[in-house]
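Changelog-adjacent note: as of this version, every example in the card shows the full chain rather than a window. The one below runs 439 residues end to end.
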Amino acid sequence: MLENLTQKLDGAIKNLKGQGRISEINIATTIKEIRRALLDADVNYKVAKTITDEIKEEAIGQKVITSVKPGELFVKIVSDKLTELMGGEMKEINTQGSPGIILISGLQGSGKTTFTAKLGNLLKKKGKQILLAACDIYRPAAIDQLKALGEQIGIDVYAEPENKNALEIAQNAIKHAKSNGKSILIVDTAGRLAVDEAMMKEIEGLKRELNPSETLFVVDSMTGQDAVNTAKTFNDRLDFDGVVLTKLDGDSRGGAAISIKAVVDKPIKFIGTGEKMENIDIFHPDRMAKRILGMGDVISLVEKAQQAFDEEEAKRLDKKLRKNQLDFNDLLSQINQMKKLGSLKDIAGMIPGVGKMMKGKEIDDNAMVPMEAMILSMTPTEREKPEIIDSNRKKRIAQGSGTTIQQVNNLLKTREGIKGMMKMVNKSQSKKTKNKKKR
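Full-length structure tokens:
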């Protein structure tokens, strides 16, 4: 996510490392490089100039504490300014109402329908009763797409395929939500262009008649500054409550994330980071600023892990690890849990220092596919008792998974390595327990 911007900002700030203090002379080049990095990332020119001027003014006025290096102090100033620029603090969506109505709007191809399902999935995990309404009456596959996504995540979808009146469908969906005990209705609407007057009047009418508790504008972050300009045009007509940036996992330069709040004066509330239903994040300006500066985002990583990992499964695995009884069913379970966290590259970027360490290196999200295939090629008995896997079984597992015998051997060694490590941990813990008892 935003790797190019991160690398360029890191390169700019390196100019200050080794300096005894921050001065107007040694900061000039750094400020120039930061402004260039922001403009390259497609940040609005006025926004880029304003933030760099503010960074310069604040940095020169700072007294450098002896224990803090100038470079470290400067990074904090830049982080604070980026956080402020992107909204300062996280803004929650309003789901008040009976039901709470969330109206989704945006351009054609921005990822509205996918986001509608992702948001439903996120709110469902928080214990809400969700209904999705298919009100895109223009795109032929839109209703089928939403139905398929709803089935995938276990959420009902209200649709009237023959009805060509979006407002009527939405109003009927509200009645359906009330009679079926749904606490939140998320209305997916058709993608439209700001220049299409009839379509703009339709979305204005939907907002006016439905009186939603929240109106979100979905925009493709890969369109850069065009995304910001489009958001401004839509906001002038629709006065939406928040922005959703999709496709931040793609070749996004990041300019929209940084400048949209300053230009439109509406907060970013969610970001999409992939096609999977779990690839949605609540937008935290402070965390995004840290990630842009290569400082990681451990809090978001922990939150992702808490959502992905089953508590009972974690307890069961912990018990098996302590008894040194790890088998391939356990490894398969962990691979499936890891998949829910998102791309390996994204996870690496959340760990402080790891993103910089992996700079320029490709992280293959399919790295675990052969391992999964080998485990699935084993019989239930082989998974539970890997010690019975002899040369003939290895050959069959390799053939069944499209891998080599060497890869099967490596998988077996990986398990043995984990077991050996856990044996050492268990010994260490038992020694500590004995020592405590002696005292």
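Structural remarks: The chain has a mean pLDDT of 78.
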